[in-house]
């Protein structure tokens, strides 16, 4: 082990060259696996989703896989031989680049998925709360981004959770400031899921107001008051 460590320290180009060779050798196999995966997907619906959402970024996906393989080799080498600082200098920007590209790919996939989903719902004549769709898209991408940041920080021994804890006081202050907005958003989500009424329904309010529901948002509902034509926001 000591001889192996000495060799790597004296010849840091070895793991770098190994990473490059592996990427070159693995490229045809990765392309073959992607084609095989696409052709052997179980259901036609899954194939349809793959073709419409993933296939447009297949070249980007291949690049990510190759970069990820190279980064894993460099990261493992650095863990085995901590004294080899030159590898860390190379690996960190490679790992950061991989994380950024994966984040960009995730954004494109989420954006494309929700765009297609929204288009299909509109074509089918179904009513959709656009505010809820925006929130769902944002939460999906935020969760994806959080997973990437967590994996990157753990792989590079960055205490991201300690950093979050140090910002606890600021987080509490922001939470209090946004409390009213969060209440409105949660109320809108509950209203949309329960669906006690729909757009174009006529409803009565506790104060005696009666009118037609114009729109249902996450933060407010618009009602056209009968007989007056006045638009009320509740």
TrEMBL record:
It is found in: Membrane. It is a multi-pass membrane protein. The keyword Membrane applies. InterPro entries: LSM_dom_sf, MscS_beta-dom_sf, MscS_channel_2nd, MscS_channel_TM-2. Keywords: Membrane, Transmembrane, Transmembrane helix. The chain crosses the membrane at residues 12-37, 58-77, 89-110, 131-152, 158-178. GO terms for cellular component: membrane. Its main location: membrane. Residues 181-226 form the Mechanosensitive ion channel MscS domain. One of its GO terms (biological process) is transmembrane transport. It comes from the Bacteria. The keyword Transmembrane helix applies. Belongs to the MscS (TC 1.A.23) family. This is Similar to Small-conductance mechanosensitive channel.
């Amino acid at each position: 082990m000591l001889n192996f460590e000495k060799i790597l320290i004296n010849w840091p180009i070895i793991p770098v060259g190994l990473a490059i060779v592996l990427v070159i050798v693995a490229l045809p196999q990765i392309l073959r696996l992607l084609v095989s995966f696409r052709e052997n997907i179980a259901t036609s619906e899954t194939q349809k989703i793959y073709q419409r959402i993933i296939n447009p970024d297949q070249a980007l996906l291949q690049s990510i896989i190759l970069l990820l393989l190279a980064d894993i080799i460099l990261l493992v080498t650095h863990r085995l031989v901590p004294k080899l600082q030159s590898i860390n200098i190379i690996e960190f920007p490679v790992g950061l680049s991989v994380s950024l590209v994966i984040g960009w790919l995730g954004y494109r996939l989420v954006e494309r998925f929700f765009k297609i989903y929204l288009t299909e719902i509109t074509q089918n004549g179904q009513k959709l709360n656009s505010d809820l769709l925006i929130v769902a898209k944002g939460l999906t991408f935020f969760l994806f981004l959080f997973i990437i940041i967590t994996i990157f920080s753990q792989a590079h021994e960055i205490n991201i959770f300690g950093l979050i804890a140090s910002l606890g006081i600021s987080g509490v202050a922001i939470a209090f400031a946004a409390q009213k907005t969060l209440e409105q958003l949660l109320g809108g989500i509950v209203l949309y899921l329960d669906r006690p009424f729909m757009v174009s329904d006529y409803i009565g309010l506790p104060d005696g107001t009666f009118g037609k529901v114009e729109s249902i948002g996450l933060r407010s509902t618009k009602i056209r008051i009968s007989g007056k034509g006045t638009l009320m926001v509740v």
